[in-house]
Design goal:
Layout (H helix, E strand, L loop, with lengths): L1 H17 L4 H6 L11 H47 L5 H13 L2 H15 L6 H7 L3 H14 L2 H9 L4 H12 L1 H16 L3 H6 L8 H10 L10 H34 L3
């Protein structure tokens, strides 16, 4: 456990320590301890204002992709997983097999075919080239399917139907409350996957104003190599530190729902 904690926290400690240094101190001092001038707040200010505040634009792009992409993926996974768990229809087993197969296919394997298809449709270098692929989450759908099968008793749904409630009213007033921990879990997975998405934006986007943070920071990093290099590694590290803050906050805020879902699943018969 101690080794795991060290392995998890050491990169974050290194990132914070080095985000407090100037570009010169970053190269010339030991990486795991403070040295030279403490310029953390100057680095943050410079990161947010460098190149006319392009970092803020990349942050806004990333939030847009997360809200529409991860939010849409969670909604579609919830509706699809609930439908597959609580309704019987022809071809249900075939759909289950397709979803299991899709879970095993890595996203990077589909990136190039997706790029070729979007290129034919004229959608490359647009926000839709990132948002539309992010809407598909086979693992999220499978997770909601399994969770709904156990957490939403069929007897409750039948009782609601006997009382005259429509399927939509039953879903929004009863089922979605019982599914809340599962929905939050799927949302967290989708948020992290979209926030850290790198390969898909790399091949889909060429306009810097559309870049997410992952691609934008890599562009800054590349400034430090080649002829006429202009290294700004101190800003790259400070930007990387700022990038992980929203994800940490999201986990802390939603931790209560996630833990309650795991606890509820642990006592089910």
């Amino acid at each position: 456990m101690s080794l795991f904690i060290i392995y998890s926290l050491l990169p974050l400690v290194w990132l914070f320590i080095n985000s407090t240094k100037t570009q010169a101190d970053l190269i010339s001092t030991f990486g795991l301890w403070f040295s030279g001038d403490f310029v953390f707040f100057e680095n943050v200010a410079q990161t947010l204002t460098y190149d006319n505040g392009i970092f803020v634009r990349w942050l806004g792009n990333t939030l847009l992709y997360v809200v529409l992409g991860a939010g849409g993926a969670t909604l579609l996974a919830t509706l699809g997983g609930y439908g597959l768990a609580k309704y019987n229809f022809p071809g249900k087993k075939a759909i289950f097999a397709v979803i299991l197969g899709a879970v095993a296919v890595p996203g990077t394997a589909l990136a190039v075919p997706t790029f070729l298809m979007f290129s034919q449709l004229g959608l490359t270098n647009t926000i839709w080239a990132i948002i539309i692929p992010s809407l598909i989450s086979p693992f999220g759908l499978y997770l909601i399917w399994v969770y709904a099968a156990d957490s939403v008793p069929t007897e409750i749904l039948e009782a609601a139907r006997v009382d005259g409630a429509s399927e939509l009213r039953t879903f929004f007033t009863i089922s979605i409350r019982l599914l809340a921990p599962g929905i939050v879990t799927v949302a967290l997975f989708a948020i992290v996957a979209t926030w850290n998405n790198y390969f898909l934006p790399l091949i889909m986007l060429s306009e810097p104003n559309l870049f997410p943070l992952t691609i934008g920071l890599q562009q800054w990093n590349l400034q430090g190599t080649g002829v006429g290099a202009d290294p700004i590694f101190n800003l790259v590290l400070t930007g990387s530190l700022l990038t992980i803050v929203p994800i940490v906050v999201a986990f802390l805020l939603l931790q209560r729902f996630w833990q309650s879902g795991l606890s509820a699943g642990g006592v089910k018969q």
